[in-house]
Amino acid sequence: MKPMRMLLPLCLVLAACAPKQQKISLPAPAPSAVSTTRVTAAEMPVAAAFVGEGTLEARGETTPKTKLALERLSVSAVTTGDVAETTIEHVFRNDADERLEGTFRFPVPDRAMLVGLAMEIDGKLMEGELVPRDKARKIYEEIVDQMLDPALLEWENGTTFKLRVFPIEPKQTKRVVLRLVAPLHRGEDGLFFAYRPPTEAGGLSLERVKLSVDGRTVATDEGAKAATGEVLVKVGEQAPSVVTEQTKEGTYVVAHVRPEELASAPDTTRPQALVVVCDRSRSMLEARALQASVLSRLVSALGPADRFTVVAGDVRTRTLGALRPVGEANVKAAAAFVDAVEPDGASDLGKLLTEAGTAAGVARAEGFDPVVVYLGDATPTWGETRTSELEQIARRVLGAAALHVVMLGKSGDETTARALTGATFGRVEKPRTEAEARRVATAIVRSREARRADGVRLEGAEGLDMPLPLPHTLYEGDDVEAAIFVPAGKPPPAALRVVGTSGGKPFAQDISLASAKAARNVGKRWAAAKLAALGREGDAKKDEIVATSLAHGVMSKHTSFLVLESEEAYAKYKIERRAKAEAAAEAAVTAKDVDGSDRTASVTPDHLQPGDPEVRVPAPSDAQSVVVVFPFGETKPAVFESDAQGGAWVARFLVDRSTPDGTYEIVVRITHKDGRVEVLKLPYVVDTKSPKLEVVTERKANGTVVIRAKQQLTAEEVEALGAGPGTIAERRVRHAHILTDAKRVEVRTPDGQVLSLVHVRLGEFVGTWKPAGAASGKLRVVAVDRALNESVTEIDLR
After folding, report:
1. I need a labelling partner for 666 at 20 to 30 A (CA). Which of 85, 229, 352, 505 fits?
2. For the whole prediction, is pTM greater than 0.85?
3. 570: exposed, middle or buried (C-beta count within 10 Å: 0-12, 13-18, 19+)?
4. How many CA atoms lie within 13 A of 793 on its CB side?
5. How confident is the model over 487-519, as pLDDT tens digits?
6. What DSSP string describes 544-585?
7. Which residues contact 726 (CB under 8 A, 6 or more apart)?
8. Residue 272 class from Cβ within 10 Å (0-12 exposed, 13-18 middle, 19+ buried)?
């Protein structure tokens, strides 16, 4: 069947998780910017790291477009610093009798970075590679014409992506795996993985949903529930203010800026005039009701001396006219005016801002303080579309008027929204419910009364690479990130200083970098900021965007993830297998110190037989001492050894042959140059048991044989970890992430082939054998675990 050429709109989405027994302060509906009292982090909207399941729509020559059944959904999150590395696996089923081509939609959380894609092809999970968009699209089209198995993930608009999949075989499943890095929620009581549970209305029962956070299985109803529907799973007692990552290129730093000790706003005697800008482009179709609600609440929240007007449009603009007082008749007139402008066409954001600027000038001349509020997705598709130019237009036409952006719709352009508000005195709001619409409207109307700092800038980062400036205005309760790169050989600054004015007086706040916590993905977060800054220039910086995206493994508007059917296909198209190499590399053991910091130390290997492993601690070379205390009472000083990556403190030790299998813990005490003491706890596993496998085969109609191997955990292995609470079966589940350690499985077939099975998930391996002749005889399956124990299993083919 010739695949059908479909360019269907596509979406990606994500979210996060936290423990049920913890006491959690949920976000309050009250606005964070309206009160002159201190605002806590718990009152801020929830930042979710996973926001719902995706959908796969497909069609064939005789099959109309249909939504494929989602058989199961697995979400696995690993936290590091203040973000979660989240892996989302979807398994869809094609019930049709023909081969289909499909489009996968998946929602991505705010500020999430898309860093990986994999798809199952002939029983093997193939890792995708990040490729320049134009090249990826050309390769995809060429391969689809050959009736092979590619997948292409592209940016579409805002936070919307599309994944084109071909083929989806009849009566078969299709497995798609996405990897993201998304912010954790900062609550008053700690750090939380926040997620929106999948809905059974989407056709997936909760029994077929698996969630895990940091290796622990999380029930779908576990955790406290926020007013906006997110479930919160606690992952830490305190959110770090500064995180850092060191590479051979230099040091990456992400510092959180949360303004404190702000002065009360000066009293204002002038009434305000609200200029509400309603974007009526076609992308607002689904958000019409919420847009009308926010408009009504904004106008209704004004005082008797205040005035308002409305600007609406898409490619062309319309205005309600002269400023009007608040009243039931005028509120209805405004609603009727906007409702009469049918959502259609593109969005000329520059023209809408210019019309709003004209209305703001009239308001100022009539003795009012103008406040402009944009209601839409902030996605310019007509006229001037460059964010940097729209930012200049906003500054020029609005003058000193505040511009607030209320983002509506599913595909908003947050980069543009934050650039526009960052250039003025506004902030970005994202209401999803009526309760949030009420909070946002009140916050905006009373924003002149809020504690805030204006003219904000960051001192101490001069000469360093800080892609995005801080917003012009910071309100009490705001939490913004400053991403900085310090080249190798240049020491990071000891502190940064946020300066500006608050309440008409100088404002300054120091951010110490001395307590920065080491974490993964900080370089990727800097890259995301760099991509956002470059993206403000439209396509003018395309080459630099592509280079930054590929160098840091973060998808952009000008790069795509491409999955090909074989290693030979990647070689043919000269695509470097960076993603595969990263996925195959064994992660080092991460030890958390008693203060909760992430400092990567390792036992090599971390699963071992009796022998002489080593401990490597990446403490600074100028530390006073690094002392290692082993679980059997022996204490050794570590010695600093230089290498190409800068070096580490190393201590070797002996694991005696009489040592029982089980998990042990090493304590590392680091005394830094300044006398500060840091303590790390580092676990390792002694394992002398060979992995046991269950091997099954499945013959396909085309003659190929799918071989599946799954590691089985014995009662003896479970007992080796100690008694602990619960039955053997319960402990087997609880300790599966430690005991399931098979890392390589090879199969010798009766016709002499040697197959390396692909590691598809914890303890499970899959491969496809294409027999040279009749598929009969014995399969010899060899498994090796992380401690290099080996087992051999033979099965008869029938």
Report:
1. 85
2. no
3. buried
4. 21
5. 988 888 889 999 999 988 999 999 998 888 888
6. HHHHHHHHHT---TTEEEEE-SSHHHHHHTT---HHHHHHHS
7. 734
8. buried
